[in-house]
Amino acid sequence: MKHLLMKLTIVGIVVFLSGCCELFNTCEDDSLSAQFNVDKTEVVVGEKITFTSTSKGTPDKFVWSFPEGNPSNGNGESMTVRYNEPGTYSASLSIEKGDKSDTKTIHELITVTGQNPQADFYADKRKLKVGESVIFHSISEGNPDKLNWTFDGGVRQNSSDLSPKVKYDNPGEFTVVLQASNKYGTHTKTKPGFVEVIPEYIEKVNVIINITNEDAEKDCGFNISLEKNSINLYSRKNWGVSGHWKRGHIATASSNDISTKKVSPFGSYSFKIEHASNNGRNCRVSFDVSVNIITTYGRTLKGIDSYSIDWTNGRRTIPFTLL
């Protein structure tokens, strides 16, 4: 009788504890149930979708299947998938834990539609100097499979590259056009005046006189001027009117900022020199004249010529080369 009571007591305790685990939700459940959710069910071609497992039973293995998807299968608690063609697609998740497994398939879960492209682009720079190049970059959406660029004013007028490089040899404001196409349609983006090519002008003139004869006459003065296309760039009167110029004497003078005259630095220049006063004397002097043309690009053109003056007026054309 005593042993019987002891057995009944043990059975009662087990039943009581079993009821407590259910009451307090502490019972272990080794059953598996495959479940998942998706962040969106309607997308356009190429748009990403994220699948996430919400399975029950703490599985230790996940196997996904996405027919026609990219990727079409995979492992892990979540997956990101894209679809490259319009249509309606299913998705499946299989889970495992030990010798137990379960599978969840949802048919016609994802609807994918085609998308017309949306053309757009940017450039690594929009202001440049004559002779410089710019690289354009397509940022078109909708997975275009064909690009057609048009570059107004560019040395290269057209391109089908993703990031074409274009050189501009003339100043001005130029339009860029990008047409993006795929099998669903075509879209064109036009940006007027997108590229500005800044012209190069003469900014400053430096004139250097180097006396080359042994003795120049005293009190010889000269008027000098530098012209281009009949536009006066620099002039000075009565230069060297006093004093005895001797061999090796160097005189310099500079203009102010003349960029507002908008004169191109390329081409030929006319340098004019004439007597300003001679006080009844012959003015004989030989010298080299050097002219430096500083441009708005920060470059320098240099020209040099030689003169021997003896009661004569002179006008010379000085050739310049870009250094």
Q: What is the CATH class designation of the largest domain?
A: Mainly Beta
Low-confidence stretches: 13-18
Mean pLDDT: 85
Q: Please tell me the total number of domains.
A: 3
Order of helices and strands: HEEEEEEEEEEEEEEEEEEEEEEEEEE
Rg over CA atoms, rounded to whole Å, is: 43 Å
CATH superfamily heading of the largest domain: PLAT/LH2 domain
Relative strand content:
over 45%
Computed structural class: mainly beta
| Helix amount | under 10%
CATH topology (fold) name of the largest domain: Lipoxygenase-1
What form results from the Cα inertia axes? rod-shaped
End-to-end separation: 121 Å
Task: Output the strand order for the largest sheet.
Answer: 2-9-8-4-6
Kindly state the number of beta strands.
26
The assigned CATH architecture of the largest domain is Sandwich
Describe the structure.
The protein has 3 domains: 31-113, Immunoglobulins (Immunoglobulin-like, Sandwich), CATH 2.60.40; 121-198, Immunoglobulin-like; 202-322, PLAT/LH2 domain (Lipoxygenase-1). Helices cover 7% and strands 53% of the residues. It contains 1 helix and 26 strands. A 5-stranded mixed sheet has the order 2-9-8-4-6, with no helix packed on it. Strands 11-17-16-13-14 form a 5-stranded mixed sheet, with no helix packed on it. A 5-stranded antiparallel sheet has the order 21-18-23-24-26, with no helix packed on it.
